[in-house]
Amino acid sequence: MTLPVTFAPLLDQVESLFALHTNPKVHKKAGHELVTDLDLILSQEIQKFSTARNIHLLSEEEDDKQLQYPMLILDPIDGTKEFVRGLPEYALSLAYMDSPFFSSPKNWGWIYNPVLAKFNIPCRTPGKLLGFVSRSEWDDGLYANFNSSAIELRPVGSIAFKLSLLAGNYCDFVITLKDKNLWDIAGGTIECHQQNFKLFHKTKQMESFNTIRYTAPMTWCRAELFSTIADFFKL
Asked: What is the domain range of residue 184?
């Protein structure tokens, strides 16, 4: 995917900010979720960029939560817990959506992990589908009863990071059994769609985003694999 030249300075700035702020302060939001100073800095700088170009920004860390196309959709650090713990399973998720439809040719997604080289990509087992699932969902035991000789599950932090790995063909599917916000999944969904991986909400293939909050389950995979995955998880 080739990003528009207009956005190149923004992506360079994001990379520089991650390099400058390797140990940011950590705070707790009202709902006890973690947020770092770097989250806030990234959101503020991307807000300046979008305002200067009259592009609406939907960000986890900004108050304006309207869907207003065209727009940038941002999660400054998806996988904050992993980031704080020093695990290389987090990412900035950024999407530009010209319209709600995934297929719009002007759409693009960018998932940036500055420490990707430190992540040990799981090896595939011959003859098995490999699926990446949420590390927190795994730790909560949500996958304890799913066993198959044909499907292997591996826990990985950050839904955005997992979707980027899927788009790179490092696994066969990604599934979540907990609800997600649009900023969690927009960038990765666009990346995946452009590599012919589809998003299924429960059992229906999605073609667009029309709200901010999405209920589980959600599955990203190639269309021809969905029935096998749906049967396994009893979707």
From this structure: 120-229
Three-state DSSP at 120 gives: coil
Domain match, 124 and 110 both: no
pLDDT in tens, 142-183: 999 998 999 999 999 999 999 999 999 999 999 999 999 999
In the structure, how many helices (H) and strands (E) does the chain have? 7, 14
Whether residue 122 contacts residue 103, with contact meaning beta carbons closer than 8 Å, is answered with no
pLDDT digits (tens, 9 = 90+) for 175-188: 999 999 999 999 99
CA max distance for the chain: 53
C-beta separation of 216 from 159 below 8 A: no
Measured between its terminal Cα atoms, the distance across the chain in Å is 32
Tokens, residue 14: 């994001």
**Domain CATH number, residue 194:** 3.40.190.80
Please give the tally of structural domains in the chain.
2
CA neighbor of 235 nearest in space, from 184, 200, 196: 200
Does the pLDDT at position 26 exceed 90? yes
Starting at the edge strand that comes first in sequence, how are the strands of the sheet with 56-59 ordered? Answer: 56-59, 71-78, 91-97, 108-112
